[in-house]
Specification:
homotetramer, alpha/beta, Dihydrodipicolinate Reductase, domain 2, 2 domains, 10 helices, 33% helix
């Protein structure tokens, strides 16, 4: 008989759905000692939260997250709300001794994130941040190859996250579905929303970033705000590019924008090492491109690895070789790994502490965008 | 309150899992009047079927499919067993007035399939065959483009389904996981297993096939049989290629093999029309390649359409533009459409009758492979 | 001081230009004992042939190919005229003891080709047919890999040559630039023009073809003829697909058409062997796709080899790694190899005898297209 | 009768060959009033320069470039020598009233380049710099599309030029074939050699660059010098990445390195405009990727344009649609355009003045690499 792991989810937006799907699927495909139980979902709108609960099979609902946290029958609090609420909820959940799964980015700022790290570490509760792309099988494979030393010394890292959804100046900001464009809810624009993903992966794959030189832009300066109904100044960064140095000496370029026609969610990275190189992109997430200089000379080429074989990360849990999984599966993998971490006592990353490092890089990037100087990444 | 649709699944292999996942997910993502209920799963091994039920949340189990069919609390029988059992189960289920979802291919032969069609049509029960690839969004989009007349007169159709998993002569045949290699269970090799998918899509997209000239091969003549423990003659076709004429006059080539190094499940098709062409492959299932000659001259090119936008088939039900779904989702779409068909009285295809046409083409292909002549497709 | 090799070219169409360019370039890039001399060019229109000679630097012109062949100062006769003239010219040139470079296909039919082979072999003159694609570096590399045994036993071969230039029914047939559409000049349509290339490569790479089953079509039945000015029946095959068996047991599909929207000159082949697979296409001619099953499991993938490195066939003669050459260079390579063959006494292929085999396959294909039966390839 | 255009080439290295090939071919494929005459080639080694002349058909040789410039029978001086010699030769050639074709980069520094611009403009001689990539047909097509306004307002520009040939620390610097690694001959490393190409194209396509923030690196600090025979400090930049702002407000990232495993000469750019986007890379130089948001919604996709059709830039001069040309042809196009500029009085770019702008950007990049600040591009 499996041990129940009772989840209390806060927020039912895009991420609330993604997390719920992961909870619903994980025990179908992964052998775990725990059985995830969709215990409760919480949001302010009672009718809507009840609809959500019915659709996904949550046993109960709440409209006040403090009540949710206070419940004895909840083991894990999942924070899937806008960025500006993460800290308060997390601090309370930690205090209540709940395990915490927090949507990324961890916090609005580095200092805020530090408090969150301190809280979960003091409370000794399992904690994780939903940087889900680490667990796309091709990305996990990239990590394995690097850890095996296949690339040798790494010279270059490049990452981009390109979207095109805010080119239209008539698009409003703020409110449901658009809080990511509102600086008060989001903290920053592409830096916290998209580059944070790129940075999390980069630090995981290539170690810490020492310093950055950044350039930010807000192409559309004013947009109607959906909450006030008025045209207001846009406070977020529409686009951000930065140069970086890793502590291992490698050079990097990072870029994100929501003004790249033709790209919906093109997260891509490439890493060049002395012996081998790797590249990947989210639009074709099953493929890892791999070049190995040690291959026989005339047959060297970029290998397009269809990461769908039984010995590829996570893939034996799904279908048969050649058949693809998608975006949502990265969340299922994360839940599976979180639970295994709880079961084995070896916490899976990214923990709050891991995610804090990404936050510190974001802070340095935003600072550099204003100072127009190289900025060191704080500790 | 939704109306329950109580499913009784027979078989818990690869397809049993794929169907169960579809049932478990469909109400999370699609707005339907029915709520799918995982009522019972049936298989001969009591312990294993109980494990399967526990994992997937089936309420009960059976070890005799006849008992399952006899149950009053079952609305739909899902046949996910080897090919040689489809007909008997389907005839009984139809007689019992159950809706039927049958795994492909419909039957061992055309004549057997005709009996099944007659049975479901006489019983007036909803019926469908799991040719799931029709509902990969990119394939559905191809159908829409053809139906809108974008291609104009169609000159050419090509399809392939390439695998590499039986190159090793030490691989046995027969029994769990390997019944597809055993002619007694499967009826044929790549023709019924893989080309049947290609034919279903082709007939759906381009109309009926008039005649074929085929070539079949069994590269490995003998394999150990897992049930007898003895080396036995291999009765299936390892590889099959055929020329075909559609009734609309277009020319076609079809090919399937399990001896194509480098391909795990490479189902691909290309269609050339007088105004536009389309191609697709299963290894990169989100991409539809589309060339339109009516584009301005110097900018004509094959468009790599990432079929992940909100106005693409089925995609508004999932995540946000640019984020991929996978193989399993085609089954979810099929369940959703099946249910909508039940709700609207407009049955979704492929029905047993639709699938019979594929069966008749398969029969002609296998006949031609032996006769070494062109063979007409029977009615 | 180099030995002159004095060329007399007959025909100044597309192929006349391609060959002239090869002669003009070969000594700039290849170290040979011979210096190619553009001695004379011959065609019926005196003004036009003089213009051509001036443009390309031919020293003299002729309007009667018999006179050209009679000249003492010509070493090599290059036949770049329509197919129906190859035999007569080649027989005369052989009789006159000239080396012969003949445009493909060798002849109108197999029997005609046999006479040509007999003539050059009796005369003992160096001879070659311009199946230029063998010498695209990526194709030559494919040959090397196969000869080294990298693929192991070959199971499958597929080739296509797809064009779209005759979809418009208003396009006339016959005369300058369009003789390929006129059965009297061309002998056949896509079979002799395009599939002949595919067959030449296939036989070179994978050995002889034993038998074929073909399907041919003429989508546009009548076209205006540019010579008669009248609408006439189209005698050539617009499209042709065939199944084939190689003598080594491998299965093949071949297809060509001029009705494939979106493809201008898409010659492509793929070969599946027990250990490795290869594919290539003419639209991206520098890339050879190579999959090797012996690569470490999790990093197996199709290698996209950019065949532009110094150790790739022919490439050290051109620029630096990464920089591409094009279509025309295959002709330069062929001239270089022809001359080396003359210098070393080891004739480079394809000789007339090699090309005859392709002719015999074409004959079998056209015969099968009519008989609708499998036909053996004649000797 | 055509007017002769008598070329005197200085230098016979990689670029000397590329230019010679262009001169040899241009009249075969382009209709011009001038006939290029390979009058003389000049280099210090008498035996080698005579060999070169014999191979390429130069009528005479010189070993002192001043003598070449003094000759009355030379119309055009082509400077294909190391960077540190461009200025002195160009100043002398201008003074002598010769037309000048100068290899890129124009000069060692901006101030040096200004003198060269002043000299040719004062002398009133035709002048051009060999930034050949502008005339790869796909790149020229990109220019046409931008000039037609297809992209609308441009938000983003990214360019990279990636190589991998200096990863081996045993590779020496300096002397024949390796002068590009010697700061005394080359002035800079990847900045002047590779980024200069990227900058030339970028300014041509997207206008002037206002400011930059750069990061440079020399991964291998010391290498044996081929001239001194001693291990010496490496003075060039191995790798360089920079952020940039165009004067039109668009954001850019540029990067070049010789430490990118798997890339031989991967020059690539991507441009995102409000209505459309474009991307291109040198490894597949015939393909322009083009995304147009105005395409009908469900069929939007990146078009892979095979720039080989008769209405594509320069292509009607070559073969037939679908057949590729290569790297060398960009030089042929440049010669053809240079001559047409002379014939029409409308000089083709990039002139020395155009190339000076690239030089000024390079200066700002190198300065920023040291200052670690944003630097404005000088006038």
């Amino acid at each position: 008989m499996k041990t129940p792991l009772r989840v209390g989810l806060i927020g039912y937006g895009f991420m609330g759905r993604a997390h719920s799907n992961a909870y619903a699927k994980v025990n179908h495909f992964f052998d775990l000692e725990h059985q995830v139980v969709l215990k409760a979902v919480c949001a302010r709108d009672d009718a809507k939260v009840k609809d959500f609960a019915a659709r996904w099979g949550y046993e109960s609902t709440e409209t006040d997250w403090r009540k949710l946290i206070a419940r004895e029958d909840i083991d894990v609090i999942d924070i899937a709300t806008p960025n500006n609420t993460h800290a308060e909820i997390a601090l309370a959940a930690a205090k209540a001794g709940k395990m915490i799964l927090c949507e990324k980015p961890l916090s609005m700022t580095g200092p805020e994130g530090k408090k969150m790290v301190a809280a979960v570490e003091k409370a000794g509760v399992a904690n994780m941040v939903w940087y889900n792309y680490r667990r796309v099988p091709a990305v996990t494979l990239a990590k394995q190859l690097i850890d095996e030393g296949r690339l040798g010394r790494i010279f270059h890292y490049r990452a981009k996250f390109l979207q095109d959804w805010t080119i239209n100046p008539e698009l409003p900001q703020g409110g449901a579905g658009l809080w990511r464009l509102d600086v008060k809810s989001a903290g920053s624009g592409v830096t916290g929303d998209l580059l944070a993903h790129c940075i999390d992966t980069a630090v995981w794959l290539n170690g810490s970033i020492a310093g950055v030189s950044a350039m930010t832009e807000t192409f559309v300066k004013e947009r109607k705000h959906n909450l006030s109904g008025k045209v207001e100044k846009v406070g977020i960064d529409d686009a951000c590019a930065f140069l970086a140095r890793f502590q291992n000496g490698s050079l990097a370029t990072f870029e994100s924008t929501r003004y790249a026609r033709g790209h919906k969610a093109l997260y891509t990275f490439e890493i060049n090492g002395e012996n081998a190189s790797i590249s990947w992109d989210l639009h074709d997430l099953h493929r890892l491109q791999y070049f190995d200089h040690r291959d026989q000379g005339t047959t060297r080429g970029w290998r397009s690895i269809h990461v769908s074989d039984g010995d590829h990360p996570y893939m034996k849990n799904w279908w048969v070789p050649g058949l693809q999984i998608g975006y949502e599966h990265s969340f299922v993998h994360q839940v599976a790994d979180f639970i295994r971490g709880v079961e084995t006592g070896k916490p899976a990353g990214p923990t709050f502490r891991d995610a804090l490092e990404t936050q510190m890089v974001c802070d340095a990037v935003l600072k550099s965008g204003k100072s127009r100087k190289w900025e060191k990444v704080g500790k």
